[in-house]
Amino acid sequence: MSEQSPRLQRVADLIQRELAVLIQLEINDPRVGMVSVTGVDVSRDLGHANVYVSVLNSPGGEAKGAVAESGGDLDKLEIEENIKALNKAAGYLRSLLARRLKLRTTPKLKFHYDGTLRQGNRLSSLIDKALKADRDQHS
What we know:
alpha+beta, 51% helix, GMP Synthetase, Chain A, domain 3, 3-stranded mixed sheet, 139 residues, 3 strands, 16% strand
């Protein structure tokens, strides 16, 4: 996400909050699992918005925490399906956003996967393993 003016940042934050609610309440696509809108990057002319989401569980319904602890191909497929479904619903979400927000133009939405949550969990587990190994070595 890039550096934005304060006004653009406020608009991006507003879009992020509204999209989080709209995705949860209005999207009935079974391919969309539980997603969290982690950030929005709005172009200077408000024509486009890149929406970053984290996938928190699979479309099948079983909770997995932060998507992929194993990092397997199935998880990548689930993420791709979620992103495809969200991008397919982008026009519908844009029309709902236009009704809720009083902006002159509502940006076109493009959804992207944000893997920072997954990377953070992986790094945290590596740190925990290193600390445990260090404690075992000094005991």
